[in-house]
Write a structure and sequence with these properties.
The structure holds two protein chains of two kinds. Chain A is 49% helix and 31% strand. Chain A is an alpha+beta fold. Chain B is rod-shaped, with a radius of gyration of 59 Å.
Chain lengths: 169, 374
Amino acid sequence: MTRSGSKKLYMAVIMLLLATAYYVHGRNKERQMEIDGYTRQYERLGLELKSGNKLSSALADLDSFTINEYKVTHLDILRYLSLEESNMEFNVKGKESRKVAGAEVFVRRFTLYGVMPYSEALDQVDWLYNTKKVVINHVKLAQMAEGYGDLVKMTIEGTLYGLDKGAKG
Amino acid sequence: MNILFFSAPGIYYEDGGKGDVTAIYLPSKVREQRFTDLQNPNEQTVKLRYGDVHDPAPLWRSVGPYVYAYGSMLPEIVERRNAHKVYLPQDFVKPGTSAFYYVLGNRWVVHGVKTISEDGQETWGCSRIDGDDMGIIRGIVSSVSEHMLAGSDESIVVAVHANDAIKEDLQKALDPFGVEVIHFDKLKPARAVKPLYIHRDYGLLMLSLTIISFLTLIMTLVYLALGYFNLEGLKDDVAKKSDEIRIMKKSIKLGHIKDPDKILEFMQPPLKQLPSSVLHGAAEVGALFGEINNISLGEIGKRGGKKSRRRGARKKNLTVNVNVNVQEQQETLLVNQEHIASAALETRPWVRSIRRNPGKSGTNLMVELQVLEK
């Protein structure tokens, strides 16, 4: 092959290779833009999931710490507080409605009364406190008359909250 | 050294070796031209002035203010891929040489004689001699003997290329004249001598560029493939994340509530400590004063109620008041009660104050305790 012929052939091959590389590079840039778009979408979804999980967790807490106002009865409240088989007196004083963060929260004051040994009374107060389903506002432990040993009269006043969760809640 | 010997009509001799070629051009006085008006001579400007436009590159050289054009390259040499440098025959001899004989192969002899004009200008007259082995030897010996007869200080170069047999015979024949026959490979053009024409072998450069272009293409293809896999992985991840969000949204209860944290904060109990620890802490203090009638932990949920910040207390510490009603012990002096209270405060750092408030059914002690706030 002549000098000019081989030169033309080499140039043609080089140009073809470089043109193909340039074309592929263009596709790479398009692909990279797509990747950037998906990366941003992935990060946005991650943030959405994180905030969603936080919201979901807070709503789950709220669900477990409130009674369903849609179908609440005295027995429902006792079941909610796991006191349906207890022989303590449980009275609900009244109900009021409060608007908190755009939601209607139903607030009930209740009184729990019972006679039991001092240590058991402390356990009962703590147990109720640990359920997180009520807020204890007032506790009174009073001594019984002579001859009752360490029995005390326990009176707990507290607050429990309700939300309208609908028929399914 | 690969040698090619040519003139305007064509190629006379070439040894056929591969690689770079040193070409000897035998100029013709008829074709030689001298230009005095070319300021910055180059191949293009010389070509415009010399020969036909269709001719290949001119064979030219600048000497002082003059540009000498000796002829044109042969197209068949120009189209060769290996590198070529073209010189005049006299370029291979040292200054001071008066005649040379280059025996090329079995047939060709390039002969040159230097003449010096009256004004001191040196000109070379070159010719080619065609002959067989014996004819060449006889011709050279005859010519050398004539030169020797012409002057004793003649410096004659005799070189042979690619023919050792003729070199040996020629050496024997020229021994009486004291002329040494050398290999042509020993003759090199002086550094200052510029070739009449030069073309380089671009094969390696072109091959290198082709390889680089090919590697560039491969790299971009690899990058494209990696990008493709990366994109597919990202698409899968986005789909998974979207599914997770869909499942999370499906499982959300109380979806109509937008800010559950505020409601949870509203419902939060005011104390961090267990109520039993607060009650028992106060009862323990009350028991030092007498038999306890009742203990009352009152209205801790009310803001601004019986909890209060103490000056100097840590930020998260609150004080909670607990009423302890103890039976009045008539025999106990107030000063003794004060001693008991002081001891209680010293041994129980969480007790902040004890206040006595006598009542009908006994003595009310208001015990102020420090507790952690939620």
